[in-house]
Amino acid sequence: MISIPHTPNPNASSLSTREQDQLTTAANPPPASSAPQSQQSQQEYHYPRLTIHYCTQCKWMLRAAYFAQELLSTFSTQLGEVALVPATGGRFTVTVYHRSGGSATPAATDEESGGPVTVTVTETVLWDRKRDGGFPEVKVLKSLVRNVVDPGRDLGHTDRALNKAAEKKEVEGNEPQENVMQYNSEHTPCLRQIERLSTPRL
Rounded to the nearest 10 degrees, what angle do helices 61-75 and 138-149 cross at? Predict the structure, then answer.
């Protein structure tokens, strides 16, 4: 009879607790921390960043998309990003987030330290439907965005239309009251005649 020596198998029962922990960690590595991803997503924003919050209950999505299209057509790469943000409660706001200098590139790197440069982002509400009353005209909205993104830029016919409207409003505001009174006195007989003719005869 031949006896074969018994060799124990290196199973889990023969391993120490520390070795089991090491094997478990190697087989199931811990998930990566979400903090670097959050910081990375913040750095991926391109500025100036313009957001349009629109009320979905009021069905203002097409209006918001139209404004976004007009702004992108005019300013092109001067805008780093235009985002449509669904909201409720009759909200319609246009907000721009911009850094100093108005650059649309991502965060720069400090040449001396090699780390990212600390950037302060400023939030400016260009238009609020409840605050300003109604929706903006496209030329007015373009002018408001231009004043933040590139104040020295000439918008051509948009600026000419705004200047013409401002001059017309100023002229109407400075119109003498004598002209209004004269107009009323000149047309009073005509108004009386029309009133007399329109009165039915008994």
Answer: 50
Q: How far is 35 from 96, CA to CA, in rounded Å? A: 26
In whole angstroms, give the CA distance from residue 173 to residue 185. 21
Spell out the alpha helix ranges (H) of the chain.
Answer: 17-27, 34-43, 61-75, 138-149, 157-173, 177-198
E runs forming strands in 56-129: 81-87, 92-98, 122-128
- pLDDT confidence tier of residue 128, bands split at 50, 70 and 90: very high
Please return the burial class of 148, using the count of CB atoms within 10 Å of its CB with bins 0-12, 13-18 and 19+: middle
What's the residue count for the chain? 202
Domains in the chain, start-ordered, CATH in brackets?
44-170 (3.40.30.10)
Tell me the average pLDDT across 44-56: 91
What pLDDT does 170 receive?
77
Crossing angle of helices 138-149 and 157-173, rounded to 10°:
110
pLDDT digits (tens, 9 = 90+) for 59-74: 999 999 999 999 999 9
pLDDT at 159: 80
Residue 22, CB half-sphere, CA atoms under 13 Å: how many?
5
Calculate the average pLDDT of the chain.
75
Alpha-carbon separation of residue 144 from 64, 118, 125, 126, 140 (angstroms)? 16, 27, 10, 6, 6
Handedness of CA 35, 37, 118, 80 (dihedral sign): negative
